[in-house]
Amino acid sequence: MIRFNLKLVLLLLCAAVVIVTLSLWTRCGEVVLANRGRKNSGQAAEWDTGNKKLPNGQDTYGGEVVEHGGNSDLQGYEEIECNINGEHSIGCRKEGGEIYLPFSFLQKYFEVYGKLATYDGYERFEWSHSYSKVYYPKGKYDPRGVFMYFENYNVEVRDRVKCVSATEGVPVSTQWESQGYYYPTQIAQFGLSHYSKNLTEPEPRRTVLEDAESDLLAHWVVPNGAALSRILDPRTGSHVVQFSSPDSVTSGISLKLDHVLDFVLSLNFVFTINSSFTVVLQSREKRDQIFHLHYICSDLLISAQDQYVYHGIGHCEHTQPWRRLTRDLVVDLHKGLAYQNKPKRKLSRSKLKVVGLTFRGSGQLDNLTLSTSEHLSQFYDAAQWLVLHQDASTGGWPNPVRRRVAPGMADLEPGWYSAMGQGHALSVLARAYHHSGGDTSYLHSALAGLRPFEVASSAGGVLARFLGHIPWYEEYPTQPASFVLNGFIYALLGLYDLGVVAPSASQQATQLFRQGMVSLKQLLLLYDTGSGTTYDLRHFMLGIAPNLARWDYHATHVNQLLLLATIDHDPLLTATAERWIGYMSGKKAPHN
Ligand SMILES: *[C@@H]1O[C@H](CO)[C@@H](O)[C@H](O)[C@H]1NC(C)=O
Ligand SMILES: *[C@@H]1O[C@H](CO)[C@@H](O)[C@H](O)[C@H]1NC(C)=O
Ligand SMILES: *[C@@H]1O[C@H](CO)[C@@H](O)[C@H](O)[C@H]1NC(C)=O
């Protein structure tokens, strides 16, 4: 959205008049001065609700300062004071019977958005009520398909993602704790976005740099004292590269490359202790700008200094099973720069190339590939993380941070479960179970993940009851309950997904889904303010002001209802969604 400059708006108003005289321009400047108190006309002026004192002791908005009246000009408009609800005084324009207010005022007062746009060679002013987007489902929701509209999500590039862990292959959040932590909801969203992108994006380009099956070996540079051979690996029955190099950071076996556009590196590997590899990236514009991405056998999450970025791939041991690593090199570079608070703008995908790869220490590797994307590998990294990090006794995925939802509600202590996190996890695991052709590790994890839905939020689960009766799955299992709407619907989607993908094994999921849909229809209209929606029911629970959903959350409510309406034809869902869409362009419920 574009911030409006008062002067610009006034100029726009001036321009509406056929002939603009020099004296009028001067006058515009004076109005800005008079209204802005101390601010000079050259500054970007923002409308300000503050009752600032002017040097002469008068209030800016007290009605004393604004000069108006008697400035009739040839075009027939004059300046006039606008008194707004007896609280503010601003400079307006009067033209015949019409009054014009500066948009910068309207923007803040009504929280609307506007910008000047030029197309077809002519300029116009565009006003919009909300900044968010409605996604109309293309067909009936399918739990084997795209999740909501998550193909548009790019979880790992968000600022609140510290990095993608090279040990786990999943994002690490800094949203509520700056040192970084694994946030199950975010990890599931990462998985769901990659699964959805796999279904919607064009086929990736893949370049196999080494698979030990062909003569690619010839390209390796093997320094004195290092060794490289192709062997048959008994564990996989496939040919792999075995390498070793002397203990020195400067040596190692390396590949010289000149690879553009495809920056997702993947490989299978087994390393001995203290081995590592490095990818060298170069700017295509400034050839002396070179970055080294080091992947080292360590528990380090991320570290960076100047052009060197380090990600830990965890402990390495030659007796370990084969591991697969998938890295988006550009994301890794950007996170390394962000780690040092350096800008990344000039280093987009199109401005970089991969110029080298070096392996140090010793070990085996195979299927070394550079691709446009490896969405399914990243999806399975998320699914695998969920299987490995579930609390076996409760079936929950713990959130390891303290969280304050609202004053008046007890803080959530580290270890709490979220119905949204549980539901998203079910959506990931249901898809992994389906896509893997029935790998039961995903199904068992998903079934265990249902347990917190049956346990009261006061007893460590996620189940609350509205007025003691109506069951609700809590995104934040607070005391008293908060009844967050969007997290509840995400939980419903997860339950639905599991019920559809594994119908006989998960009747419990279907049952929980049906029960939740009944609750949703009972409580849905409590969130409707007649001009928007509330995020939760804290106003009812705590006797305080409602927590109005900002437009992107409101749009999420709408998108969720539209999606649910494809699997449940109750007219309440569509009628409510339609009305809520109207609120996004300023419509309101009728009044008496
Ligand atoms: C999606 O996954 C399939 C394997 O199920 C793969 O063949 C295809 O290339 C992938 N497409 C994209 C865009 O990731
Ligand atoms: C691995 O590196 C650590 C730290 O540099 C060192 O203390 C250790 O001796 C190394 N281990 C081996 C087996 O080389
Ligand atoms: C490399 O990929 C091939 C084809 O997918 C697979 O059969 C082989 O097992 C992989 N190598 C390793 C070491 O996992």
CATH architecture heading of the largest domain:
Alpha/alpha barrel
The radius of gyration is 30 Å
- Give the count of helical stretches: 13
Strands, total number: 21
Helix content: 25-40%
Cα shape: globular
Arithmetic mean of pLDDT: 88
Q: Stretches where pLDDT falls below 50 for ≥5 residues?
A: 1-73
Domain D-glucuronyl C5-epimerase beta-sandwich: 238-362
Main location: membrane
Catalytic activity: [heparosan-N-sulfate](n) = [heparan-N-sulfate](n)
Subcellular location: Endomembrane system; Membrane
Overview in brief:
Keywords: Isomerase, Membrane, Signal, Signal-anchor, Transmembrane, Transmembrane helix. The chain has 592 residues and is α+β, with helices and mostly antiparallel strands.
Describe the structure.
There is one protein chain. With 592 residues, the protein is of the alpha+beta class. The protein has three domains: 77-128, no CATH class; 150-163 and 184-200 and 378-583, Glycosyltransferase (Alpha/alpha barrel), CATH 1.50.10.10; 206-372, Jelly Rolls (Sandwich), CATH 2.60.120.260. Helices cover 28% and strands 22% of the residues. The strands form six sheets. Strands 8, 9, 10, 12, 17 and 19 form a six-stranded antiparallel beta sheet that branches. A six-stranded mixed beta sheet has the order 11-18-13-14-16-15, with helices on one face. The chain is globular. The structure holds 2-acetamido-2-deoxy-beta-D-glucopyranose (NAG) (3 copies). One 2-acetamido-2-deoxy-beta-D-glucopyranose is lined by residues 273-274.
